[in-house]
User: Fold these one by one.
Assistant:
Number 1:
Amino acid sequence: MIRFEAASKTYPDGTIAVDALDLVAPSGQITVLVGPSGCGKTTSLRMINRMIDATGGRILLDDQDIGKVEPAELRRGIGYVIQHAGLFPHRTIIDNIASVPIMLGRKKKQARADAMELLERVGLDQKFAHRYPVQLSGGQQQRVGVARALAADPPVMLMDEPFSAVDPVVREQLQDEFLRLQGELGKTIVFVTHDIDEAIKLGDQVAVLRVGGRLAQMATPAELLSN
Ligand code: ADP
Ligand code: ADP
């Protein structure tokens, strides 16, 4: 479980991006952060893996104050998926996926075998394994991004608009596959989007933020639909 306790972030120029946010992201569930551009979604997400450190309050991961955990150690348990996949351009797909486990000490052969399995799980044919990212479509690259984040089998996944840069048809496929995968894996997921329909489709619960970095509403998709 991830818990924000009055967590805040004020940037050095004085911008209050996140303002005393109280939020719980339960284990095994998808918590969506939704709201307009600039409301602090990305900042909130990056505070969880300490790419950005909070300037006030604290964030707990399974009751441990993440401010007291080394960022590198923290990130071993936290996968991170961004909008444009962020794949290493000079590595093949299979090596992109296997890179983190290898870095963590897993044997190359085993890591590559695991990566092959992950390719299938995210709905990509194994023929893509030895291609380079530029040879894949945007939607396919996003699948690889998800596979790479899953490769270290982290209990927590942070996802920042992972499906926003692809066309609507592919987006829907990716969302459906993501839900199917999460049904099997049961990760603790914090998912950022500006798209309320996506939030309602994917979230077990939805945190609606407003500009200024405050929580406007915490609701289930059903509650949001009835409003
Ligand atoms: P969102 O993800 O909801 O679009 P962000 O978390 O990216 O929002 O940004 C929240 C606010 O913080 C915005 O006003 C943004 O301009 C500001 N901001 C983001 N990064 C920085 C930064 N490095 N320095 C100053 N202000 C920033
Ligand atoms: P999608 O509908 O999934 O976004 P695209 O229409 O972009 O897919 O691509 C269709 C097919 O063309 C895919 O199988 C993809 O792997 C292939 N493809 C796209 N770009 C390249 C490229 N630069 N080199 C080789 N194959 C490519």
Number 2:
Amino acid sequence: MALERTISIIKPDAVAKNVIGEIYTRFEKAGLKVVAAKMKHLSTKEAEGFYAVHKERPFFRALVEFMTSGPVMIQVLEGENAVAKNRELMGATNPKDAAPGTIRADFAESIDANAVHGSDSLENAAIEIAYFFPATEVCPR
Ligand code: RTP
Ligand code: MG
């Protein structure tokens, strides 16, 4: 198994609900370590850049508006199969389809306000980590 790093973002809805700690506990219990973290209120430009792959999708404007509606908590998670493990902890994009016990099933309101983001591949994880964290802000391995 491979030691991987991935990006997790606790979205504005979950930050407003004051469940950062509860979500961190799930990462810890699953063996994922936080190796970088910052809280940030994203600008429109930052959110547009982060979600650029979705810019032609019908939900793009709503997504950017939501992601800039309040502060987010951004972290790099490290662990065995971190990318897939984090996606598993998150649950399906739409909380209505998310498996019981997942973060989205327990804390998300809707497909828009869905509590967390997680990188969907190792390749995108590297791009997303570099988007938010200069190398000096991530703990060395
Ligand atoms: P994320 O990127 O936030 O981790 O979520 P995801 O991979 O599960 O979903 P993705 O397809 O990458 O979509 C990014 C975010 O856009 C919103 N979305 N809305 N209304 C819609 O049909 C729709 N589809 C996606 C969601 O908030 C999703 O998390
Ligand atoms: Mg995605």
Number 3:
Amino acid sequence: MSQISIAQVEKSYQTRHGSVLALADVNLSIAEGEFVSLVGPSGCGKSTLLYMVGGFLKPDSGRIEVDGKLVQKPGLDRGLVFQQYALFPWLTVLQNIAYGLEAAGTPRKQRLAVAAEFVSMVGLKGFEHRYPRELSGGMQQRVALARTLSYDPKILLLDEPFGALDSQTRESMQDELLRICASMRKTVLMVTHDVNEAVYLSKRVVVMSRRPGTIVDEFPVDIDRS
Ligand code: ADP
Ligand code: ADP
């Protein structure tokens, strides 16, 4: 059974110039544990689709289900990571990560200990008490990833997660993500305009095109990552 099921989804945005059909006839099923990339030109609706799976936007018609249940709002079963890390500037690394745990209902006494585990997981030991502005871009993205992973969502929704990073940092983050996903068995849906990144990370690449945004192709990736 698929964990994420997208069927006959359509979505328009209302603008001053009228209605823009962003997505039409989108169908996609993703199994538990899969790593799927969505690629396609800017404006083809990749982010719109990702945010609908996240429950931040509603389709005009069609159905999006996660584990057989209609998605109607955001939930802790789905964790989002954005290109812009969206950390709280007034909280330290440890506090930013603990904030995710607060949202998940982890008791106050356990939060800092659990947050510390995730600090180690993403390689930020020693930086717990830094503020986001005191960190490099790659380190900030690691904090954002740790904050999302800390409440253990089954599904990771990634929107150009490494798009703002220089190529060397991006490569080390990509390997880190693969390692984390393999050990924590996540289902991942990632939006990227970088086909190389999609092929490097995912097991299946789904290709979209625009006017209106829809899925036009998909292919499996079978490379030796060891
Ligand atoms: P992508 O992520 O592939 O670049 P988006 O999902 O961001 O595509 O956008 C899909 C289409 O919907 C584009 O034509 C875009 O201009 C339009 N769109 C996205 N968000 C809005 C919005 N808030 N208001 C109006 N149009 C939007
Ligand atoms: P990354 O973004 O992957 O950490 P960088 O090249 O930006 O890569 O940084 C390399 C290393 O330099 C980091 O892992 C960290 O040890 C150190 N570093 C970077 N920025 C800072 C900073 N603002 N304060 C302290 N150490 C830093």
